[in-house]
Amino acid sequence: GNPANALGFFQNTGSIGLIMFGVYLILLKYGMKNK
Q: Using CA atoms, how far apart are residues 27 and 11, in angstroms rounded to an integer?
C-alpha cells in the first residue's frame, strides 16, 4: 500500500524476483518445446 515500502521491497528482492521470473519463463518455453 505504501509506495515507499513498495520501493524498498523491490530494491531488496528485485534481483531475486527477476531471476526466478526468468527461470520460470525458460521452464515454460522448454515445456512447450518438449510437448
A: 25
The tally of domains found in the chain comes to 1
Domain holding 10, by residue range, is 1-35
Contacts of 10 (CB under 8 A, 6+ apart): 17
pLDDT in tens, the chain (35 residues): 677 777 777 677 778 888 889 999 999 999 888 76
